[in-house]
Amino acid sequence: MGEPLQAIASRRLAGTVTLALDNARYQRNNTVKALAGELNIELLFLPFYSPNLNLIEQLWRFTKRKAAHSRYRPAFADFRAAVQQVLDGVSTTHTDQFSKLMTFNFQEFDDVSLLAA
Length: 117
Description:
The chain is mainly α and about 120 residues long.
């Protein structure tokens, strides 16, 4: 993790750089945190579970609730057919319910300069 931090610092960007990271153990250790502090890099750790950042999680939760919740399916083929039926109906039968579920509830940051890797 030290090399990527050094590479970012070598660009000599003005001000503090904020680096968004997941919660991998190797990113959260004290050595990485200390190096980031020395290099004027702020580490922003994403939540451990953040379904709003992964919209497929929302789709699966909706599908699971419609196709499987409190329902017995005697064979895998029945389960598969139920899932397929829900997915086929997302843009027709379930449009209203699904659109309410798929909210773009993201944290926004003002005046942030972005650097593409």
